[in-house]
Amino acid sequence: MPRSFELTIAVALGAVVGMTWPSGMVATLVGALVGAWAWLWWDARRAARLLCWLEEPRGASPARLGPLWEEVAMRARRAIKAANRKARKASARLQALLSAIQAAPNGIVLLDKQGCIEWCNLMAGVHLGFDARRDIGQRIRNLVRDPAFIAYLNRGDYAHPVEIDGRAARPGHPQHIAVQLFPYSKGRRLMLTRDVTTIELAEAMRRDFVANVSHEIRSPLTVITGFIETLQTLDLAPEERAHFLTLMQQQAQRMQRLVDDLLLLSRLEGSPLPDDSEQVGVHDWVAEAMTQALALSDVLHGGTQTLTVVEGPPVVVAGSRSELLSALGNLLSNAVRYGGSQGHIETGWRLRADGGLEVWVRDDGPGIAAEHLPRLTERFYRVDRSRSRDSGGTGLGLAIVKHVVQRHGGELGIDSTVGVGSTFRLGLPAARVRLDDSVSSARTGLPGTALETP
Ligand code: ADP
Questions:
Q1: Closest atom, ligand 1, to C-alpha of 392
Q2: How far is it, in rounded angstroms, from Cα 125 to Cα 232?
Q3: Which residue's CA is the closest to the ligand 1 atom numbered 4?
Q4: Average pLDDT for 30-53
């Protein structure tokens, strides 16, 4: 029923009741007023019920409110539903955003005007050493007490990041965290943290590498330049000239070897991993490396060294022939160069219990002290500098070997005892190794047979 109609009926009813009183017109008026007041009171109760329901909506809508209030209730319900839907969506979006920020490798902290943490992700806590959940609301200057950070915070100039030690920093294990603040919205600040340890290490390695290469190239260049000046200024006898030219050639070859090794390393770093499209017979691989080692041994020691091959089962390896040859060639060349003129050098292969292949090179040379072993495969690391250079070493051989083996999913093992000798082992995984049925034992010799190579 429309409200105006309800009011009219209430007023009319009041007037009719008033008419029954003896005071006539006045009573009728009072009756009409009482009817109007009663309707207003009743309507106010309906409005109050509606307000109660709006505060805590239970059920579809409160019953018996009349058309207007029911319409208001229905519209309010729709509006509430739409607002709830929007709020749920916004909350889901916010959660997704926060999860994304949580997954970021960088730390993110939101600071209020007083410099207290309003929100932060877990990584910020990991970098700076506070509890990302418990320490919400704490002042950042009480949590991160590094003097460099406090000075940065006080300075107020946040154009560049400041670098501080991370929580995981220990003697020998540096951790550098770059922290930068970005002011936003009325005195608030966004703080970003980034672990720059590896970047700095890579940068330091790059600097070292460039310095090493320059040094390696400068030495032979200096020698060659000196000889050229000598040849230009002095009137030398033909045999002296020939001697100088031979020395110059040696230095040029040294530079050539260095450039070759550097190019090989950069190729190894830049090319895709070797797949199983190329199959390398271990017998041929070892034989070819051995031929090169024999030639080198002849040049350096005049054939006084003994080189032996201990053959294993006929095996084929899936990998890059040139890379594997270069790895074994480097190990044999080291054994020849450092093994001494009366040295015994043994190389061979065997199948390991796990199906992998082990190729070893053993010598009874001077051996290497234990403290050098962990650094031996670093680029340009040498135990004995002059001996390495004199024998044509570039300092990159074992770095190449390690790289090649790792590219094939294997590992390089080194055992050495000073005064006894060294053993280098190339281990290749079973997935790359299979027995070669096509090769007869007549060709390879029986597994484990020691063949002395002349
Ligand atoms: P280099 O070109 O100087 O031989 P490598 O990377 O091949 O460089 O070897 C690094 C260093 O390890 C060498 O300088 C040498 O001092 C030491 N080394 C390598 N192989 C042997 C070995 N068989 N016996 C003794 N020392 C070795």
A1: 2
A2: 68
A3: 393
A4: 90
